Amino acid sequence: MLGGVWQSIIDGINWVKQTWADLPGYFDQFFSWLNEKFKNLFSILDSFGKGVKAFFASISDSIKNSFETMINYIKSLYDKLIAPIVDGIANLKSSIMDGANAAGNWLKDKSNDFLNFFGFGNDTPKAALATQYADNNRSVQYNGGTATTTININTNNPQMANQIINNRQKNDLAFTQANLRGLFKTCSQKQRR
User: Fold this and answer.
1) Which residues 6+ apart lie within 8 Å of 14 measured at CB?
2) If pLDDT is split at 50, 70 and 90, which confidence band does 129 have?
3) Residue 161's closest CA among 132, 138, 127?
4) Helix (H, G, I), strand (E, B), or coil: what is residue 129?
5) 3-state secondary structure 156-168
6) What are 131's strand-pairing partners?
7) pTM confidence score
8) pLDDT category of residue 136 using cuts at 50, 70 and 90
9) Cβ atoms 169, 149 nearer than 8 A
10) How many CB atoms lie within 10 A of CB 138?
11) Backbone angles phi, psi at 28, to 5 degrees
């Protein structure tokens, strides 16, 4: 009986020794197996990552191509439909401006002709029509004195020249009389003192 117990203890010790000796081999097998599994897992994950990257790259390219196609289509519609309208409006604006300038020049010419008729235009008189009216030394008599005015007018309208001269003569006479009245008042006040 005892021999059987001792034998079991010796067998247990031998098993522990054997197991202890085999233990590094078990660890090596386990880590080899684990390494292989991780390699497979990393390979799967790498393939999955490449697949996801390719998927998103293809989606990105698809979206980019779709937008490029859409933008090119919109640009072709603009070139086909809208650009002619914009160009037409620009040409219309240019035509309107040319017409407005022509109308403005015509109105300017006609208003200048109208003013020339009355002697106020800015045209240089033609040699055949140019007449110079000069009323030199026109004198006006008043109480005890004479006022002399010299007027030179260049116009091709004799009625306008006469009207200007007459108006100027009346103004000069009124001014002179007003000044002389003031002078007479001053002199008469000094004499009274």
Assistant:
1) none
2) very low
3) 132
4) coil
5) CCHHHHHHHHHHH
6) 155
7) 0.30
8) very low
9) yes
10) 15
11) -60, -45
